[in-house]
Design goal:
By secondary structure, the protein is an alpha+beta fold. Helices cover 27% and strands 27% of the residues. It has helices at 27-41, 48-57, 63-68, 129-143, 158-163, and strands spanning 18-21, 71-76, 79-87, 113-120, 148-154, 167-174, 178-186. A hairpin with a 3-residue loop joins strand 6 and strand 7 (178-186).
Amino acid sequence: MGVRRCRAAPEPDRLATVLRLASLEDIPALNRLIDRSVRGLSPGYYTPVQVDSALRHVFGPDTQLIADGTYFVIESQDGLAAAGGWSKRRTLYGGDQMKSADDPLLDPRHEPARIRAFFVDPDWARRGLGRQLYDHCSRQASEAGFTGLELMATLPGVPLYRALGFEELERVVAVGDLPVVRMRKVLSHKP
């Protein structure tokens, strides 16, 4: 396993500051971001074989999130720095390549909303972009009537979600022999 070198940290005047709704036109940039994020942040957690398999079978854009208006990107002057969203649908994780059936709506009175598909470019890791996306998504889910959130975290994402107050429910192995952690949180803010 080789050492992956990241570009130099962006200058302060080049900070990512624009959070906006994702569109279908973002899909090529999202594919590049997802590949960079998974390859750059997975060493020490997953093997190269697991990473390749996950990129082929699990990770990728979910166009239903984009169509629902619940997927967001954070832009820097150099391109996408991060992406993530929330969902009012049953799917817990995975891109379009994992879907084979309907993706029914959740009942906010009885089911938690989903936090979905968070990816951060390695050059922007640990700068608060994941938290910024989460805060935006959790507010929107709360405004839609949801009182809880659930997600399937990759191992590199578990520390962020723990810091955000999520509790581990179970550890499972996803498609491609990828260990992941199902987590849940009760929302405390009111719409």
